[in-house]
Amino acid sequence: MSNNQIVPETLQDEKILYPQFNKLKERNRELKTLLSIGGWNFGTLRFTSMLHTFGNREKFINSTISLLRTHNFDGLDLFFLYPGLRNSPTHDRWKFLFLIEELLSAFQKEALLTNRPRLLLSAAVSGAPHIIQTSYDVNLLGRLLDFINVLSYDFHGSWEKFTGHNSPLYSFPEDPKSSAFAPGPASPGKYTKQAGILAYYEICSFLEKARKDWIGYQHVPYAYKGKEWVGYDDIRSFQEKAKFVKAELFGGAMVWTLDMDDVKGAFCGSGPFPLLYTLNYLLLQDGMLVTVRSWERTNGKAEQEKLNYSGKRPPLPGFTSIVFITADCKTVIISAIDFLHQDGFDGMNLDIEHSEFWGSPTEDKQQFAILSNLRMEPQLCEMC
């Protein structure tokens, strides 16, 4: 942001990154891309200046619409950390709402004038109760925004003097003083090179010689090696969080940040983007069978078609979800029967490869046997 107008941070953003990012729509026609402004390092000063007067806000809004349309974005995400805190005056809480109302109104008018879909409007907000109380009118935000990204991380970190998980699903029920003393951040990662922070692919390397444990009441893992303690997310904790999202009827899930997943699958042994894949499967596919076509071409003619379930893609969360959750177990069986009859197949191959090496719980061995026996005794699904 410069002179109360939204501007690309660098020329590279405008010329290279924006086009590359929005080109993803060619691979997924339902994809919506939003441009985010703000963040921790952005600070609050420029937001406070822009919010100060109606004229400043109008200038920001007009520049926003122009930039989003020019570069083919579908909306704006406001990443203001935080109204009324970090040297932001208390009245920014209300002026932030004024901005959102005015943005929404301008987006609606622009859509009518241009006969284009209305630009989307979202905000990234803290999940910490003391920040929520100071910074947000939750009811009004819920009415005005298309969706809200709750930042459910940074609840604890290397700035504290005791160990605590960065992104627990549930709050800590005990006195934090009962945690281990932590005088400072752990060593920087080999690639991220920032003390106190590790990407998931760096954590996978750390785990090779570390002791792992699970915080049952918070549904998250941690590990320690020597004097270093790491709280992190893994496939299992992502499964727990996906279940929570569905059970509480949230609209979806957001991840910060994609480049810290095991992007190429080179470190964690679970294929590319194992954490994102887990969310995608549990939130979008729900265990339904999908067609996977593998063609080998000779002289331009397709010679082979295969129908598989899973295969040499990490079985988690697919198989673990199916064998442990009754609803998923039933779903895959019913959809399999319909699918196979409809397309003239004579059966289905369950291809689960080296499950213990992909992070599958040891209980999967017995549960997989139960699933396999359903050809003889379908009532066993109730045991899943």
TrEMBL record:
<dbReference type="GO" id="GO:0005975">
    <property type="term" value="P:carbohydrate metabolic process"/>
</dbReference>
<dbReference type="InterPro" id="IPR001223">
    <property type="entry name" value="Glyco_hydro18_cat"/>
</dbReference>
<keyword id="KW-0968">Cytoplasmic vesicle</keyword>
<keyword id="KW-0732">Signal</keyword>
<keyword id="KW-0326">Glycosidase</keyword>
<dbReference type="GO" id="GO:0006032">
    <property type="term" value="P:chitin catabolic process"/>
</dbReference>
<feature type="domain" description="GH18">
    <location>
        <begin position="1"/>
        <end position="286"/>
    </location>
</feature>
<dbReference type="GO" id="GO:0005576">
    <property type="term" value="C:extracellular region"/>
</dbReference>
<dbReference type="GO" id="GO:0004568">
    <property type="term" value="F:chitinase activity"/>
</dbReference>
<comment type="similarity">
    <text>Belongs to the glycosyl hydrolase 18 family.</text>
</comment>
<protein>
    <recommendedName>
        <fullName>Oviduct-specific glycoprotein</fullName>
    </recommendedName>
</protein>
<dbReference type="Pfam" id="PF00704">
    <property type="entry name" value="Glyco_hydro_18"/>
</dbReference>
<keyword id="KW-1015">Disulfide bond</keyword>
<dbReference type="InterPro" id="IPR050314">
    <property type="entry name" value="Glycosyl_Hydrlase_18"/>
</dbReference>
<dbReference type="InterPro" id="IPR011583">
    <property type="entry name" value="Chitinase_II/V-like_cat"/>
</dbReference>
<dbReference type="GO" id="GO:0030133">
    <property type="term" value="C:transport vesicle"/>
</dbReference>
<dbReference type="InterPro" id="IPR029070">
    <property type="entry name" value="Chitinase_insertion_sf"/>
</dbReference>
<keyword id="KW-0278">Fertilization</keyword>
<dbReference type="GO" id="GO:0007338">
    <property type="term" value="P:single fertilization"/>
</dbReference>
<keyword id="KW-0378">Hydrolase</keyword>
<dbReference type="GO" id="GO:0008061">
    <property type="term" value="F:chitin binding"/>
</dbReference>
<keyword id="KW-0325">Glycoprotein</keyword>
<dbReference type="InterPro" id="IPR001579">
    <property type="entry name" value="Glyco_hydro_18_chit_AS"/>
</dbReference>
<dbReference type="InterPro" id="IPR017853">
    <property type="entry name" value="GH"/>
</dbReference>
